[in-house]
Design goal:
About 50% of the residues lie in helices and about 15% in strands. The protein is of the alpha/beta class. Strands 1, 2, 3, 4, 5, 6, 7, 10, 11, 12, 13, 14 and 15 form a 13-stranded mixed sheet that branches. Helix 8 crosses helix 10. The termini are far apart.
């Protein structure tokens, strides 16, 4: 519940109301507690209070329950009992202006990003790549940037990987060794991701994060992401939310400390963000969390246990609401003790024991004061929401989607010329060039063959002529020789007869 002095009434303890100071809301926060202890209701109470103050919020809706924030709540026995405790006589039940989003485009406006927007670091996490494969993915992105090739959707990245693998020798000197085995592993990971429907997330129009920073009628718009299906792929869910957070950090201008934040970002199921995440990426997340508050963004992690959050990040979460924890194992008991030590102790009760005792709707609350110092922890009851608790109907959801200012802006995707089209065109041109060279080579060989055939034919005729000439000459020579021999014989006989005849005559 928002008050006029930029304070948000969020809980009530024995000492009275507990307020969150508006200018300290961007110092981030933590909402933790075991399943069923009231985390979702606490999130809803905070979100609708920010909405009343004109601060838009983003939240992921795991089970559809948060969709009720769009509708006015109503009196119940539980609320009627709590009203006197909270000093509220006539609750002003109302809904908040709400827009629904869905990565898969089924229960809200589609949310898309380009491959380039996601970047190699987040994409490597999404694909569960090892260090070597991540290095190759970085090379692929670098080559695409150097060549001015746009990586928009998954077919662009697959084509780019294929292009780099086929021309690996050309790129080795400039960019480093590219292993075809690693490229194949990345391709397989992309196919697996596509089979899970993640390809619907990559494309255009890419989402503009400034569309989260909207108000209607002076109230901040609640941007609710349908996450029931998205949660089936925890890595896609957490990587997608991390991308949104990094986009806010990258695109929003520096504003310093404001009387109220520009946006509150609720990161539900936050433990998924840090599971199987490299230290380098955790360091990057820590940097984003630390600096994004100067952009006017407050980040509130919602998780089952405070120890789900790395220490470097947990140290930046100034506003803390801790619901009950369970301690059935030594590990859980250690977590409870550690959680108790993060609060500024209250002499009126044992913090560690209180964590195990508090019931549903109760919490240990420690918020920052106006100077940014944590207040003494209080055992308190969280306010009840003024909006509907529970899911809305499909018809109500569709009606709100159609009435949204974003209706039609992101619903239809388009595919402009990018790396895929460019490389396919280059491949076709290369094929035409090779085909032309092959045809020219074929013509050259055919011409050479004809010339050789002509030469063989000419040579054959010359040989035949020579053979015929030689045979004729031999015949003539034989005739001449025979004639000469005959004449010679005849002359010889004549001479003999003349000589002998003369002798005989004598």
């Amino acid at each position: 519940m928002y008050t006029d002095d930029n304070q948000l009434y969020v809980a009530h303890c024995d000492n009275g109301p507990i307020y969150m100071v508006g200018k300290m809301a961007n110092r981030h926060g933590l909402i933790a507690g075991a399943t069923g202890t009231g985390k979702t209701v606490t999130l809803q109470v905070l979100a609708e209070s920010f909405s009343q103050a004109g601060v838009p919020c983003f939240m992921a809706d795991m089970k559809g329950d948060l969709s009720g924030i769009s509708q006015a709540g109503k009196m119940s026995g539980f609320i009627e009992k709590r009203c006197p405790e909270f000093g509220i006589e006539n609750p002003d039940f109302h809904g908040c202006p709400t827009r629904f989003f869905d990565v898969f485009g089924e229960q809200g406006h589609p949310l898309r990003a380009t491959i380039s927007d996601m970047g190699p670091q987040l994409l490597a996490r999404l694909l569960s790549l090892n260090e070597t494969q991540t290095g190759i993915l970085n090379i692929v992105f670098k080559i695409a940037d150097d060549r001015g090739l746009l990586l928009i959707d998954m077919k662009d990245l697959r084509m780019m990987l294929d292009y780099v693998a086929k021309n690996a020798k050309e790129f080795t000197t400039t960019y480093g060794t590219v292993s075809s085995v690693s490229v194949g592993a990345i391709q397989r990971a992309l196919l697996a991701l596509e089979a899970e429907g993640a390809d619907l997330f990559f494309g255009e129009p890419s989402f503009n994060v400034f569309d989260f920073l909207q108000t209607e009628g002076g109230k901040g718009v609640m941007n609710v992401l349908a996450a029931d299906k998205l949660m089936l792929n925890p890595k896609l869910y957490s990587t997608f939310l991390l991308w949104l957070l990094s986009e806010l950090y990258t695109q929003l201008p520096e504003v310093g400390d404001l009387p109220l934040p520009k946006l509150i970002f609720f990161f539900d199921e936050a433990h998924m963000l840090f599971k199987d995440t490299s230290k380098a990426l955790v360091d990057k997340i820590e940097q984003v969390i630390r600096l994004v508050r100067s952009k006017g963004v407050g980040v509130y992690f919602v998780t089952q246990s405070p120890d789900d959050i790395p220490d470097a990040i947990a140290g930046q979460l100034g506003n803390r609401i801790l619901h009950g924890l369970r301690a059935y194992t030594p590990k859980e008991q250690k977590a409870v003790k550690a959680a108790a030590q993060t609060f500024r102790a209250n002499p009126n009760f044992n913090t560690e024991a209180a964590i195990l005792e508090i019931g549903t709707g109760e919490a240990l609350v420690s918020l920052l004061d106006e100077k940014g110092a944590p207040c003494i922890v209080e055992r308190a009851k969280i306010l009840f929401p003024l909006s509907q608790i529970g899911a809305i109907t499909d018809d109500q959801r569709r009606d709100l989607i159609r009435k949204s200012r974003l209706y039609g802006v992101y619903d239809k995707s388009f595919d402009r010329e990018s790396a895929y089209e460019t490389l396919v065109q280059e491949q076709k041109q290369e094929e035409k060039r090779l085909q032309k060279e092959a045809e020219e080579e074929e013509k050259r060989k055919a011409k050479e063959a004809k010339e050789k055939e002509r030469a063989r034919s000419t040579s054959s005729r010359s040989t035949t002529t020579r053979k015929k000439k030689s045979t004729g000459q031999k015949a003539i020579e034989k005739t001449i020789n025979t004639t000469a021999t005959t004449i010679g014989r005849s002359l010889g006989k004549s001479i003999v007869r003349s000589i002998l005849g003369g002798i005989f005559k004598k």
